[in-house]
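Entry
Fold in token form

___
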Amino acid sequence: MDSEKLQVFLTAVRTGSLAAAAQHLKLTPMSTSRRLAVLEEELGVRLLHRTSRSLALTPEGEAFLPFATAILDTQEAALATLNPTTGGATGLLRVTAPVTLGRKRIMPIVPELLKENPGLSIELDLNDAIVDMVASGVDLAIRIAPLKDSSLIARRLVPNPKDIYAAPAYLERNGTPRTIEDLAHHECLTFSRFTHWQFLVEGKEQSVRVGGRFSSSSVDGYLAACVSGLGLAQLSAWDVKDEVADGRLVPVPIEGASPRDLAIWAVFPSRRQVLPKLRVFLDRLQKSFG
């Protein structure tokens, strides 16, 4: 099966239109449409519903998508096996990660990775939502959450110790909470639509209801609010390294309880070979956490 036609199909799905796929692959729109039509003719099914503005997978296209991805990955793995030392990692690596983690921990490693691997390209989607990896053609997701989808493969990268933090000015105005019960009397900053914080108490998980006048869809949002003195925030240690170092935030320990550590995970769509582009990226990211 022609890999160029498969690449058109996968890129069209990922970018949301044939026009965007043509631009991304540096092809003419006519050539892109022709390659997709030939692929559908070879398979004997329609893979995409197409309009002038958008496209959507047909049931047959949805079923074929993981196989098309696996075919291209196998081809890339074969080439890497035959030429293991020619220019390091190669190809396009599509990564999705939470906004703050991507900004603070992933972006600093990207310039050196690209410099050391001239054949490598990286497409980074910073998104606090859980992205459908198969439908969006993502190679790797970095997540701070339990893995729920059993069809995905997860590798634990590093622990993600959390604590409660506050600006000194907030604590001066409102006092310092000492126990879980004290949190009911404080402004607690959360993700939008989240009403509880998770703790470990005597080795068991405990969900504690909290409330406040500010919430955000992004860690960046309530981190900024916390620094501004709007309330307490439950944040990862790497989130606030700089803010704690310069005194803008201080940790607020709670007696007999600690925030739940969800760890940082690398998530793959399937049990396929870890390609060089994935391996060098994950090795560098893991080292960056020390």
About this structure: The chain has three domains: 1-82, 86-158+262-290, 162-259. The chain has a mean pLDDT of 86. The first helix runs from residue 3 to 15. The domain at 86-158+262-290 is CATH 3.40.190.10 (D-Maltodextrin-Binding Protein; domain 2).
